[in-house]
Each structure stands twice: as structure tokens, then as C-alpha cells.
# Entry
Amino acid sequence: MKVSNSFIIGILLSVLNIPVFSQKSDNLVVTSPDKSISVTVKLQKGKLYYQIAKDNKVIIAPSSLGLKFKNIPHMIGDFSLVGKNISSFDNTWEQPWGEQRWVRNNYNELSISLKDKLKREMQIVFRVFNDGVGFRYQIPAQPSLDSLIIMDETTEFNFTQDEKAWWIPVHRENSYYESIYRLTSISNIDTANTPITFELQNGLYLAIHEANLTDYASMTLEKKKEGHGFISCLIPWSNGVKVYAKAPMSSPWRIFIIGRTPGELATSTLMLNLNEPCVLSDISWVKPSKYIGIWWGMHLGTYTWSQGPNHGATTANTLRYIDFAAKHGFDGVLVEGWNYGWDGNWYENGNTFSFTKPYPDFDLEYLAQYARSKNIQLIGHHETGGAVSNYERQMEEAFQLYNRLGIRYVKTGYVNKYLDGKEWHDGQYGVRHYRKVVELAAKYQINIDNHEPIKPTGLCRTYPNLMTQEGGRGQEYDAWSPDGGNPPSHTTTLPFTRMLAGPFDFTPGTFNFSNPANPKTRVQTTLAKQLALFVVIYSPLQMASDLPENYEGKPAFEFIKRVPCDWEITLVPQAKIGEYVVTVRKDRNSDNWYVGAITNELARELKLKLDFLNPNSQYKAHIYIDGENANWQDNPYDIKIFTIPVKAGDELPLRLAAGGGAAIEIVKQ
# Structure
């Protein structure tokens, strides 16, 4: 008698008393390894529906699945179930850099094979983890399907009630996700980008996003006309097509990060686990770094990107930055505006950019050699103005040049509403381009910091040289935005929205909050909060944003010099989305711990229990916290710096001023 693998797995799980899968009448049910999350799949009148529950509370109500095509019938109904397969997986892998060094990849999987009345096959794969759920569409190779033109998915995300959500709109203010998050009910949303985060009335937290976005269009969520739910809305090409594909094909994973607290969302590894393992054989050159840069001065109007009397990227100025970085223990210096193309209206005509030819007052060869002699990395900058074709024509030559000069880091930019004048950043055209950049950069051992990007979806696991991205409203807005800057609540929302997608080049560390060139804007934090952001907002390439002269002689600068940007463990013991966050991280390369605590516009008092410390060790806590009279509006520079002995189980009081914070280094003795 021939015995199927599914039967053997079912017997083993039964013996071990692990009911990860069951079939009740027409329902298929698969649960998480800890049994707290269940996914129920049902075929009803030829249509496929899924439902998700956590702790026996419904998270996603019954929601339908399907694909729409051009010139061939859609695959949205008339399905019959022709097969199912269940499996389990459990291993632990090490990140080359990250918020957690070790990641457990543990899930139960249900794969469903469907056939419609035209005998076309489609599969839906569900993976259920302890921290959430992912599913994807797969179309296998088959005689009746070859080249596919996908016009949309009919993936639904239905809720039982009008829940509240933190969200940003799609392609209204710009095409790079640089918006302040709104907090509204579902009924007040039209179309939203992901990640979108919900606080449910049943006490649970949920974020919807996607993982492993590969050769496909980015997914946004469109509010359904009836009920409390959304339907997927893929970003189109300029001709209206959403995705060009060829069977066999797989969609990105549609993911649901689920937690009992906001901190459980922030520490989820679901998205990373749904990407492919690293494909690079040698990643010895992929290293987290802390850097400064010729950048903030342009936003303040002190320097210009273009040539002229105030040109920032000069040889003399870059030497000054390199010397400052070497003196204070930084790893690199970013230089923007070094190359031809910045003169004139570059953001309307990026085709003038050269990525190999420096301006006459910038000696690239000499500066690269000088930086190496000081053990400093010169960080290149490739602004494209959205002219992708122009960049792709020069990209390999530019990376070859950088490889020869020993330059290992490049910041890319795409400041334009469209790519090549007509395509969205987050359509399939943009997805293909950004992947091409990362893959070619890896060939020449170059790490990428991508600005104006496609949103992160965990590709950094597969290509760890994609180290950080923008894809959110960063600190640059504090220099010139029409609304005056980022409100204090912005950074208390980011860890549970944008940060769920991956590392963010937010550029914290500003010490001078005023801007004479634009007096209506300013940094809306205290000085202590600027320090805390180095812990709260994660990036393996972490920039100290301010001018060197604004750091000299400032005691608070010591924290920026000492805080790492690569972590062994990350915890979020206290948080309320949009109000306050306490983040705790252990350095990967020492026994030291770091704490960042921040608040919104309201002052508050918190208590942090040091139960994460080793009970057999003694520590000293170097504390940088808001002074007694600190306030982000009228006294932002008031800061207290002191050291106290601490041990496991101690409780630290954290008195945070309005718009304030606390940064703590806990050093093992």
C-alpha cells in the first residue's frame, strides 16, 4: 500500500499531540506552533475564503481570494479542491546584522491546490507562525497558461468592526511614503499603503503588509464600499497593467503580524522568515556602520549640492569631515553633490547626472585614498532624479569605479514623482529596477542605502547588502517642510508602522534645532530624545545628522559616539502607539545594553524594570535624560547626564519631558 507524506505527517503530529491541521466539514484549519493563531480556509459555492483568529478572537473575518487577468477569464471562482498538503518547519538562522542576531523560523504550512471549470490550476499557500500569518498565490506551469497579464488581485481583508488604524495615503503627497501617519477608523480610509497597523477592540494588535516583493507590483489596500474591510489594489504600470508574469509564478506573501502588545508587533520576525535565505557566498564586506555626512548643511541652506561659492562637496570640506569622523570614532562620511548633474533643475531632468565624473573642486581619487588612510569609508551618493534608464546605463561603470577605490557604501536617490517620467516607484517597473541595483551592487561588494525606494519587504535577508532604506518621513522634514517639521508623536508611531517593514534611514542626532534659512521649521524634540532615537529607530547604517561644529564640545555627543548599530537582542517592554515607546537592545559585540525611551507632545513618567540584565553581574548606567525644565517647544536643550550603579531587577524612573526622551548605556562591570 502506498502511503502519502501528508498521511505520515498527520500520524506523527497526532502521536505528538500537535493538532496543527484539521478538517471540519468543508473547512480546512491550520494553527500556529503554539496553537494561539488559527487560519480557517473554506470553499463555498466555488469561491475560496480564509479567516484568521488569535486566542479564539477573530482577527480577519471571512475574506475571499482570487486573481484578475487581461484577455483571459479571471480566477476568482468556480474552484474545486483537488489537493492539499500540510507540513511543519522549525529552524534557527543567524542574521549577519539586525535587531535580533538569532531568528527562529517556525511555522505550520497548508498548501491548497485548486482547479477552476476551465481546468486551470492555482495554489494558495498559508504559513502560520506564532507571530502571524502569511499566504501567497502560486500558478504552476501548465499547458493552458503561459504568459500572464495580471490586472489585480481580489484579495480581501475583512474586519468584523470599524477598527482604528494608523495609515498613510497612496500617491497623494508623494510617491515615497513620506507622510505623517493618520489615526482614524477604517471607515475614514480610502486607499492606504502598507504596513497599516490596527488596534482592535478585542485587545489585539494587527499589521498588514507584504513580504518578498519580487517582480510584482506593490500592494496597497482600498477600502471596500460596504462593510469594514479592504481589497488589495496593486500599483499599475503607466498602461494600466498591474503585473506581467509567466507561469510558474508566485505572488509576494500577504502578511499579518499579530500581537497582544505593540511590542510584539515591533519585534516580529515574520517578514524576514518569508524571504529567501542569503544568496551571497561571501558577506565579509557587509558591515553595519555609523557615519556623518555633507548633507544636513544643504537642507539648512548652508551648502548647495550644485556648483558655486557655497558648494558643499569640496575636497577641503570633505577632508574636514573625514578628520572629524576619525577623531570621534565614526566609520564613514557621506558626500552629496560631488558629481556632475546637480546644476539647474535636476529633479525635472535627471538625465544630466554622471555617476563617475566629479566636479572640479572634488578630488574623488585622493579623498578615497585619504579616507582609507584614516580607516574611514567614503560613502558615495547616486541621486538619479528618477531617471532610471540613465542610471542603469552608467551603473556598472560606477560600481566598478567604487570597487577599485575601496568605496563599499552607496546612498541612492530617486527624487521625482515618477521613474523615467511615467512609472510609479512601487509598480513592477520600480520593483525590477531596485532589485537590479541591489544585485549589481552585490557583484561589486557594495552596500546600498536606498532613498525614495520601493517599501522594504524583507529582501535584506536574501541580499544583506541592502542595508537600509528611507521609505518614510525622515528628519530632513524638520529643516524645510511646509507644516513646520515632524510632530513629537511621529517617532512614537514609526516603530509600529513604517519600522515593521525594515530598517529606516531616519537620520537622527540633530543638536541645533533652529534653521535661520527657514524659521518656520525646527526639530520638534528635546536633545535627550535625539539621543534616544538612535536606539528606538533601527538602521544598520546609522547617520549622525548634524554639522560637525554642532557636536564639538557637547557632552551629549558622547552617547552618539558610543551607541552601536548592530544588535544581539531587541525588546520593547513598554509602548502605546503614538504616545510613548521604550526600546531595549543588547549590543552584539559586548555585554552592554542600550535603552531609548521617547514620548509624544505630553510629558510622562515611566518606570523601567531591569529584568533583562544578568542577575550575576554588576553594571553602571550612563543616563542622558531630559532636565527638570526641559520642553521641546521652549527649552529643548536642557539635559541631565549622570552615572549610577544598577543590577538586574532594579527599577529606573524615566521622567520624560514634553517631546522628550531618555537614552541609557548600561555597561557591564
Observations:
- The chain has twelve helices and 37 strands.
